[in-house]
């Protein structure tokens, strides 16, 4: 008796991790049941058939760095996408799985309550698969003691910050997190920028009334990332604790990461499309338009910096490419990009 499939996708160019070839795909019970040479399934029964008409067929993307429906952690502004709108946008772009941050706030003494609250926001509202990274802003004794419960709940990663007043941990707190995370086999993601350097640069710019979006790149110099990334690597090496340095923008920071990896340290890294395709000149647009390209860390100086990040993807320094999707409404003076104009 021949199998009837739920779905056939025919006449496509199927891209896998090993090849691109002309093939047809059969799907049964929401799983890929067969990938055969083009035409091999022509006499196969299916409830539905899609003719790809020569289009590429790829696995669904996994975006491992997504901010949705977060509280206002950085002043009055807050991310604009809900779990529904953000996951819908992801699906439209071919991303079928997202890993979203569940952010603990500084005054909170628990992580499990944060996880429960974030689950409630996402439950029944996502168009694709999702999971969470726990964002740790207060590594209290109680929060650290909950790492075992996080692992039992399926959470295998968390994130900490070396900058931002609402989120920044000092080096002692970072060591506390790394030690507990190592014990429970949890990977620690780190936003690595030197907070004092950023604050000092921001104060210098404000004194001179240099407030246009283009100066965001000046306020977050590459040296802030380079120093913090190297310091994070040192703390990781000290405890032999795995870390993932996120949204790396500077080739010099990438070089420190590559050196650590070559020495066999458990140091991993992520970069994002904005560091491959934008430079600081994109922040220098007429009026306030440059704010549309503001991100932290910012895009770097020139094409040479972009090439350095491309090399990191090619040589394996970066094993994760994510969006760092964190949208704000542009034309909004209350919660959007224009909040602090």
Give a verbal description of the structure.
- Belongs to the metallo-dependent hydrolases superfamily. Hydantoinase/dihydropyrimidinase family.
- InterPro entries: Amidohydro-rel, Metal-dep_hydrolase_composite, Metal_Hydrolase, Metallo-dep_Hydrolases_sf.
- This is Amidohydrolase-related domain-containing protein.
- One of its GO terms (molecular function) is hydrolase activity, acting on carbon-nitrogen (but not peptide) bonds.
- With about 350 residues, the protein is an alpha/beta fold.
- The chain has two domains: about 5-55, Urease, subunit C, domain 1, CATH 2.30.40.10; about 60-320, Alpha-Beta Barrel (TIM Barrel).
- The chain contains eleven helices and 15 strands.
- Strands 8-9-10-11-12-13-14-15 form an eight-stranded parallel β-sheet. Strands 2, 3, 4, 6 and 7 form a five-stranded mixed β-sheet that branches.
- Strand 3 and strand 4 (about 30-35) form a beta hairpin.
- The longest helix is centred in the last third of the chain and has 18 residues, at about 220-240.
- The protein is globular and about 75 Å long.
- The termini are far apart.
- The model has no long low-confidence stretch (mean pLDDT about 95).
């Amino acid at each position: 008796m021949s199998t009837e499939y739920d779905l056939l996708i025919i006449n496509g160019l199927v891209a896998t991790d090993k090849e691109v070839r002309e093939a047809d795909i059969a799907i049964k019970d929401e799983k890929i049941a067969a990938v055969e040479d083009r035409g091999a399934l022509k006499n196969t029964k299916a409830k539905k058939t899609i003719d790809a008409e020569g289009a590429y067929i790829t696995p669904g993307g996994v975006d491992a760095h997504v901010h949705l429906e977060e509280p206002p952690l950085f002043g009055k502004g807050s991310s604009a996408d809900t779990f529904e709108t953000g996951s819908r946008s992801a699906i439209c772009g071919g991303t079928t799985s997202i890993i979203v941050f569940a952010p603990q706030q500084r005054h909170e003494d628990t992580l499990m309550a944060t996880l429960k609250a974030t689950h409630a926001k996402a439950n029944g509202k996502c168009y694709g698969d999702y999971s969470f990274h726990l964002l740790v802003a207060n590594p209290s004794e109680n929060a650290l003691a909950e790492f075992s419960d996080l692992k039992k709940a399926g959470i295998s990663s968390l994130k900490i910050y070396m900058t931002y007043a609402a989120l920044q941990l000092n080096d002692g707190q970072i060591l506390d997190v790394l030690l507990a995370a190592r014990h429970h086999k949890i990977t620690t993601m780190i936003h690595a920028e030197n907070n004092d350097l950023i604050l000092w640069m921001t104060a210098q710019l404000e004194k001179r009334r240099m407030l246009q979006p283009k100066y965001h790149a000046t306020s977050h110099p590459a040296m802030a990332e380079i120093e913090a990334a190297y310091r994070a690597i040192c703390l990781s090496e000290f405890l032999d604790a795995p870390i993932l340095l996120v949204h790396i923008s500077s080739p010099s920071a990438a070089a420190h990461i590559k050196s650590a990896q070559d020495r066999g340290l458990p140091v991993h890294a992520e970069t994002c499309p904005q560091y491959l395709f934008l430079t600081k000149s994109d922040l220098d647009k007429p009026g306030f338009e440059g704010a549309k390209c503001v991100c932290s860390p910012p895009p770097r100086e020139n094409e040479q910096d972009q090439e350095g990040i491309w090399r990191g993807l090619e040589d394996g320094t970066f094993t994760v490419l994510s969006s760092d999707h964190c949208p704000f409404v542009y034309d909004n003076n209350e919660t959007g990009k224009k909040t602090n104009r």
